[in-house]
């Protein structure tokens, strides 16, 4: 039996053919069109005076809706100027704003490693952040596709594809993949300890940032960002087990009012407060949609600052309130908790997020941090443990602790 051994030249030819075949399959899989390669002369002509610091000519070349010719031009300029510097090697904490008008578009939390050189995000920071035009066909894509524009000035931002799960996003909200031009967005870095990138600094340092009204008024849907759509499963268990003091309860930073409603269902006189006017209106609307026959308690949601309250409460429930506050305001938070928790009352803290992270909000939390704030003010813990995964909101497993505190 004759055994044939291919020559080195034949091996090399076979290897290149296999690589070419793999490349074609990958091109078909990703269907991602690369920007057209330009000569040095063409690039100089197209880019002109555009720089990262002065992209005005790039903005002037945009239109809504975009044409194919303009899209190719914008892609070429963005690549030449930025080298797509916000691509798959850039994952700094912060937010991304429109380079033309400064409108807030994306959070770094929504960024993931995508299949091509463009930066990939799963969603805008709020529903209204982006103006989206669905398109019937784009290149070889068979999934739904949409054109992305700034929700305020309509600068062309990129495209979205309903293929995020297939192309690198393993987040629980994976679905859309926003493929974005780096020159249409500007990253704004959070500091490692404090100060969000927008809003009134004085209010922020006091723990009463106006950023929350900015986000709520921009359009925050049920289930979007921090809105969980339902009360904490851990809170529901506590109330069903009937282990908390009865009477008046306060929920600061209550948002749509999921927790105050749950307390009211269990016989409490529940008050939710929020400093966002839009959030309070959303809560009132949400309460009206709830079927609450024979409610044994009562529920109110008011536009008030947590720090201006002077009443005593039998229960105060903090869930993602402390973590949303600038670190400069933490001692003020602890002083106010000491002032409003009744002598025979209880402070319930859901401590989240307990994980390594830079900046915020939400800022990194820990059991030790909350202890250091409350124990010097006369609180002692009667329960302080991590919350079982099945009693956490989805996505918060292993990062949430329950602290129950009474005055010593």
Describe the structure.
The chain has 408 residues and is an alpha+beta fold. The protein has helices spanning 8-30, 40-47, 56-60, 68-82, 201-205, 211-217, 233-241, 258-265, 277-289, 330-340, 367-374, and strands spanning 94-98, 104-107, 111-112, 120-121, 130-135, 145-150, 156-161, 177-180, 185-189, 248-252, 269-274, 298-303, 313-319, 341-351, 379-386, 401-407. It has a seven-stranded mixed β-sheet, sandwiched between helices. The protein is elongated, with a radius of gyration of 26 Å. The chain starts with 7 loop residues before the first helix and ends with a strand. The model is unreliable at 25-31 and 191-198 (pLDDT under 50).
How would you summarize the topology of this molecule?
Elements: H1 8-30, H2 40-47, H3 56-60, H4 68-82, E1 94-98, E2 104-107, E3 111-112, E4 120-121, E5 130-135, E6 145-150, E7 156-161, E8 177-180, E9 185-189, H5 201-205, H6 211-217, H7 233-241, E10 248-252, H8 258-265, E11 269-274, H9 277-289, E12 298-303, E13 313-319, H10 330-340, E14 341-351, H11 367-374, E15 379-386, E16 401-407
Parallel strand pairs: 10-11, 10-13, 11-12, 13-14
Antiparallel strand pairs: 1-2, 1-9, 3-4, 4-8, 5-6, 6-7, 7-8, 14-16, 15-16
């Amino acid at each position: 039996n004759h055994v044939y051994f291919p020559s080195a030249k034949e091996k090399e030819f076979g290897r290149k053919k296999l690589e070419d075949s793999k490349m074609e399959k990958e091109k078909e899989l990703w269907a991602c069109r690369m920007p057209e390669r330009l000569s040095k002369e063409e690039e100089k002509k197209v880019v002109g005076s555009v720089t990262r610091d002065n992209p005005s000519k790039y903005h002037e070349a945009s239109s809504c809706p975009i044409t194919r010719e303009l899209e190719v031009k914008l892609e070429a300029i963005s690549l030449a100027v930025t080298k797509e510097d916000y691509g798959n090697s850039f994952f700094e904490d912060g937010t991304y704003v429109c380079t033309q008008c400064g409108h807030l578009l994306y959070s770094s939390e929504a960024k993931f490693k995508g299949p091509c050189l463009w930066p990939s995000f799963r969603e805008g920071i709020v529903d209204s952040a982006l103006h989206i035009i669905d398109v019937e066909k784009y290149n070889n894509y068979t999934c739904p596709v949409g054109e992305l524009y700034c929700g305020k000035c309509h600068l062309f931002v990129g495209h979205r594809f309903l293929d995020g799960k297939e192309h690198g996003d393993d987040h629980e909200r994976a679905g859309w993949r926003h493929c974005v031009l780096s020159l249409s967005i500007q990253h704004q870095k959070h500091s490692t300890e404090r100060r969000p990138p927008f809003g009134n600094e004085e209010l922020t340092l006091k723990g009463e940032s106006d950023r929350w009204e900015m986000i709520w008024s921009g359009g925050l849907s049920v289930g979007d960002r921090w809105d969980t759509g339902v009360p904490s499963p851990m809170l529901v268990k506590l109330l069903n087990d009937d282990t908390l003091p009865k009477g008046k309860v306060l929920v600061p930073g209550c948002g749509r009012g999921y927790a105050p409603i749950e307390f009211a269902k269990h016989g409490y006189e529940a008050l939710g407060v929020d400093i966002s006017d839009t959030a309070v209106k959303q809560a009132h609307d949400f309460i009206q949609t709830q079927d609450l026959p024979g409610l044994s308690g009562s529920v109110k949601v008011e536009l008030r600052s947590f720090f201006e309250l002077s009443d005593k409460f039998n229960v105060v429930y903090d869930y993602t309130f402390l973590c949303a506050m600038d670190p400069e305001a933490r001692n003020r938070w602890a002083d106010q908790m000491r002032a409003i928790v009744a002598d025979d009352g209880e402070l319930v803290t859901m401590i989240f997020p307990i994980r390594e992270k830079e900046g915020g909000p939400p800022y990194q939390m820990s059991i030790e941090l909350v202890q250091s704030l409350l124990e010097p003010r006369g609180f002692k813990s009667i329960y302080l443990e991590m919350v079982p995964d099945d009693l956490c909101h989805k996505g918060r497993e292993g990062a949430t602790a329950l602290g129950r505190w009474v005055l010593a």
